[in-house]
Every structure is written in C-alpha cells, then in structure tokens.
Write a structure and sequence with these properties.
heterodimer, A: mainly alpha, 3 strands, 65% helix, globular, B: alpha+beta, Ribosomal Protein L30, Chain: A, three-stranded antiparallel sheet, 18% strand
Chain lengths: 165, 99
C-alpha cells in the first residue's frame, strides 16, 4: 500500500489483496448505510448514530429522531461514491490498482474507513485492552481478526492524514 | 375569585430566572474512546471547529489524557450543530448546558 499527494487529491497504490480488502469494507458499508439507525444492531447504532448521547444531552425524543434522520441522510449520501470505489476495486488485476481520491472526496474516504473500524469494534466487543495487546494474546479468533482489520485500516487512515497535513 | 399563588414580583423574578437559564451557553464535549486515532481526532477538530494545529492538539490530548474535552461553548443551536458534525465524523460527542 502506497500513497502520494497529487494536484487533485491523493492517489493510493494497492496490491490485489489490499484492493479486495478495501472493496469488502466499502461493500459492507454500502449495505449498512441504507439501514435506518433504529434497525441496526444496538452496538452499531450507538457507535455511528449515538442516540444514547442525544439522550444524555437532554434532547427531546423528537429532536433525537430528527438528528438521527439527518445523520442517516448524511451517511447514505456516501453510497454513490462507495459504489464508484467498489467498481474500481472489485476485480483488481495482479499488478494492483491505482485509486484516485479527489480532494472533495477525501473526507468521505476518511469517515467511511473510520466507520468501518468503529463497526468492527462494536460488532466484536473490542475492548481497549484488546486494542493495546498483541494480536496473538487475543484468544477469540473472531476478535483477533476484527482487531487486525481495525489496525490495518487505522494504518491507512494514519498515513492519509499525515499526507494531508 | 382565585387567590394568586405568586406575587407579580415573584413572577417577574421567575421569568427573569427562566430567561437567564435559557440564555446560558452550552458546552460541546468530546469524549475519549479507544478506536478513534489521535491524529484523526486532531484532523476532525481542525476541519469541524476550524482549530489551528496547536489548539487541535491540545484538545485531542485533553480527550486522550483526561477522558473528555470541552471544545466549544456557545448558544444551543450552534452547540447542537457542532455535536452533529463531530458525530458525523464518528467522535463521541454530547452537549451540556453551562452551570
């Protein structure tokens, strides 16, 4: 995986496996972003839409519903861009893929990658202790793989932000 | 005829108190979590709150070390907007009326 800043944004160079992993991440999100917040698993709703934090902020049920609706509209607005990236990543040649991320879509890219990390942590109950421990010390194989994915996408996020800075 | 339960003076005082309470600003609070990366949090503060780099870093470190940081104090509508935008980026955020 390699990144370069271009005049128009960022270019990522991904090998075949990396392209497929990223494609899988976007495909999952494409599906989840179309689900109304209340129909998502509770942990994922809390991680993405934070209705518990709306309640803690003293918002009325009506205000909370309005916020959730706007929030889902925001996330579902990423779907067209995600479909475009999936199209480019779905059948990667052996030589790999160059994925251009124009400046106007950089935040969509960052938010979606971060959403995927939040999703995995919520789905598999990944604790701070697990995040800080070596992968081989996590006995549950599903949690180990989830931690691995969170770390891989964390590296990607970190590199992108350092390039932008 | 019904007896008045509060004097006009008391009513005025209560109305003033209520107005003062409505006028009190709101704090926007970002909470620590173990998934969001430190440089991502910093990036979001720069984007959403227009913080310069040192201010973004200071608040990010507050979140990391103290568990939370008050990143803005403002009127309710703006506080709600900041909360919503920070939540769009996945940061754990609440608002709270100032004491």
């Amino acid at each position: 995986m390699d990144f370069a800043k271009t005049a128009n944004g960022i270019e990522m160079l991904l090998n075949q496996s990396e392209a497929l992993i990223l494609c899988n991440c976007f495909q999952e999100l494409l599906n989840d972003y179309t689900v109304p917040p209340r129909e998502l698993p509770e942990e994922l709703e809390a991680a993405w839409y934070q209705s518990d934090h709306h309640r803690a902020s003293g918002l009325s049920p009506e205000e909370t519903e309005m916020m959730l609706e706007e929030h889902q509209l925001f996330r579902s607005s990423f779907c067209e861009q995600l479909k475009e990236w999936v199209r480019k990543l779905a059948m990667p040649p052996e030589a790999g893929v160059r994925l251009g991320i124009p400046l106007e879509t950089v935040d969509t890219f960052l938010i979606t990658i971060n959403d995927f990390r939040l999703k995995r942590a919520a789905e598999y109950g990944i604790s701070e202790e697990m995040m800080n421990s070596h992968l081989t010390n996590i006995p549950n194989p599903d949690q180990r793989i989830a931690c691995l994915e969170i770390n891989v996408f964390g590296d990607m996020l970190g590199h992108l932000i350092s390039i932008l800075g | 005829m019904f007896a008045a339960t509060t004097s006009p003076d008391t009513e005025t005082q209560e109305a003033a108190k209520s107005k003062a309470s409505l006028d009190r600003p709101w704090h926007v609070i970002v909470w620590n979590d173990h998934v969001n990366l430190m440089n991502y949090v910093e990036y979001v503060f720069e984007k959403v709150l227009s913080f310069d780099k040192p201010t973004a870093t200071r608040h990010m470190l507050e979140v990391h070390n103290l568990g939370k940081s008050c990143v803005a104090t403002t009127v309710k509508e703006r506080a709600e907007l900041y909360m919503q935008q920070l939540q769009f980026y996945g940061l754990k955020t609440t608002i709270q009326r100032s004491e």
